[in-house]
Description:
There is one protein chain. This protein is α/β, with parallel strands linked by helices. Helix content is 43%, strand content 16%. The strands form two sheets. It has a four-stranded parallel beta sheet with strand order 2-1-3-4, with helices on both faces. α1 packs across α12 and α6 packs antiparallel against α12. The two termini are 15 Å apart. Bound molecules: ligand SHN and cobalt (II) ion (CO).
Amino acid sequence: MDNKPQNAIVIAAFGTTYDSTLASLLDIKSSMQTRYPNTEVRLAFTSNFIRKKWHKRATDKTYIAEHQNVPATLYNVKNVLGTLADLQDLGFSNIVVQPTHLTHGEEYMDTKAIVDALADIETIKPKFKPFKRLALGRPLLGTWGVKYPYHQDIHSLAIALKDDVAQAKLQNRALVYMGHGNEHLSTGLYKEFEIEMNKMYPQVKTFVGLVEGFPDLNNIVMQIESQHVTSIMLRPLMIVAGDHANNDMAGDEKDSWKTVLTTLGINVNTVLEGLGEKPAVQAIFIQHANDAANDLGIQLN
Ligand SMILES: C[C@@]1(CC(=O)O)c2cc3[nH]c(cc4nc(cc5[nH]c(cc(n2)[C@H]1CCC(=O)O)[C@@](C)(CC(=O)O)[C@@H]5CCC(=O)O)C(CC(=O)O)=C4CCC(=O)O)c(CCC(=O)O)c3CC(=O)O
Ligand SMILES: [Co+2]
């Protein structure tokens, strides 16, 4: 028996251009690798814009010299299609794609479209099928279906965020999360998550708002004012604390969440930590990858 890995996992992140928050993604990758030491684990970025930016940096000697913490492989990070092609070419026929998206939104659906299409490829001789088993894990807050109820995924994330609640409680602040959201689909899932947090942790008021879609910042402002909240801890409900967290949430521009809420007289403590840095969140992605693998009879090891 040789030890060459038979199986592979592709971690499909939206990505980020912020090296300050790369650990959020690299930690998810390394904890997946630690859990499955005999599996090839690779990172892919679904955002075209973000991949292009890294590819451009690959030729920028000054940037590279000043960012020793950036792994060399990041400069040619590929999308899911390119990463799967590489793995297929190397002979991996059982592959799990585990997205790090929060919801079954646009980015996840596009990833699913690619995975479904590749998994459907038939060849004259079945043994030449490019992918024997190609599985797709569900997003952090779950997806449709009865086997893995999304309520359970919402519940699991709420458990994973218990340290945020404890920290807010210690500082006597309400907890406000800024998620990404989407204009094209209902984002009521985030509202359900907010309700779950308040049910699980009644000792701290939690509010969830989104950059795009409902509930938005105005909605949070209304609730905060009607509940006479005067002091908050503001955190991204995103895997990375990147562009949205640094600018839309914590930036100094007049329309950032920090500025808007501070102007209303609220004491705001911003925390630039991505969910991906939390071991409890990494564990959820490991679980989701494992569930998807099991469903197709892939034994990750
Ligand atoms: C389709 C698109 C439509 C649109 O929004 O315009 C879209 C959609 C979504 N993005 C999501 C997530 C994130 N978006 C960012 C950042 C950026 N997003 C941008 C564009 C686009 N985003 C359009 C596609 C363009 C393309 O493919 O290239 C950038 C390039 C420009 C800009 O926004 O102006 C800006 C780069 C800024 C920079 O670094 O320079 C980060 C990273 C970060 O913040 O650092 C995260 C991860 C947060 C996390 O880590 O959790 C989600 C939630 C997914 C989920 O988790 O469910 C959805 C919605 C969904 O999938 O439903
Ligand atoms: Co975006």
